[in-house]
């Protein structure tokens, strides 16, 4: 495929979104996600995140694995705090039948729902890849069906969400996963969940520091927000103003990485077939986690603790069939985390902070924080569109030599939500490294274009990248991504 200029592609993409904005549609789809800094690699090498699109069932509210309520777009009204089960950004798409049973307490409510989506995606790159094996375009198809079943007056629920993606260029990106396969039982003030699921912790927009339960599916999205399903047992004590969640994680999921022909990869391919572990139990090491969240008036506070295998590996150079590769190593660690959110009339203040300590002294302990605000200007268009202004600051105690791209960075962005029938949105954001001036820009547009159809367009640009900045490996990866999703 002929190469295209990134500016021309972005203008064409945004013009298409603008044109589609005149099209009348009736199907409902969830909001697009927030801007993130582009993921470079693991924390030891880089991971400046960008944003990604979330998967949801067609014509439904966000489902059990969607954008956390703590990270939904702000409005002038206070947002609800995190839900108790699974990923709080999603509500079940199963209709509530309890009202129909009010006249007969002996009849259990019963509801089943089969939904999902099929997505077609293409990526077009402005430059040749940094490595000879990389192409200047790619195409992929993904399929994610969702089956949900509730019974016993909604006190019991079962969810099954498999996922599969085929990619034309990167064989590592062609992969499947069980995003969710779990049973949830509610009884009084207690809730028990068992199986495979996704759990989200956090409130900030540009980086989710404290979110640690699930492993990142790096090949599926540039932003690091796509997660692999995590085997777990959760027991929650539900309170009027929050909950106490206790987790046992009996099996570790290794992080995915792009292959030899994939874009957004490190100079050496990561050998995912031969990882090493600090624990002699390797992937069978049992991890533990705890989180207390409270809502007090307009304040939402979460305190969390994790003890187990680190989700971000360190790397050592090795050989595979005589070729140099990176060998991922997963150390043991514990983490104390804080997430805080204050919701005012038109502004939301957010903070995430952590302290991470490693069992092996060769790994450097550190603290990190990200905080900022989102201010909403309502009704800036005749149709009632809102403009959200975003700003967050990142700090990491390891400094410039610590391997983190967030050691001293500023994020600014804006989100235009037209609040029309098609849920049209335009997002733009930028990261600036205060120390070396490296910059990355991202634009996203999304809109439903017909019954059960949604168009997502993204553009990513890297500029003035310092040679020592972790994002330097992506300096050739300016691109436009176009995705068409069909929901059913």
Helix segment tally: 1
Using only C-alpha atoms, the radius of gyration works out to 22 Å
Poorly predicted parts? 1-108
What structural category characterises the helix and strand content?
mainly beta
Helix content: under 10%
- How many β-strands, per DSSP? 21
Number of domains: 1
Shape: globular
Account of the protein in words:
There is one protein chain. This protein is mainly beta. It has a single domain, classed as Porin, CATH 2.40.160.10. 3% of the residues lie in helices and 45% in strands. The chain is built from one helix and 21 strands. The protein has one helix spanning 6-20; strands at residues 110-125, 137-151, 156-167, 175-187, 190-197, 230-239, 242-249, 276-277, 287-296, 299-309, 314-320, 323-330, 332-343, 347-358, 366-377, 386-396, 408-417, 425-433, 439-450, 453-463, 479-487. The strands form two sheets. The protein has an 18-stranded antiparallel beta barrel. Strands 8-12-11 form a three-stranded mixed beta sheet, with no helix packed on it. Strand 2 and strand 3 form a beta hairpin. The protein is globular. It starts with 5 loop residues before the first helix and ends with a strand. The model is unreliable at 1-108 (pLDDT under 50).
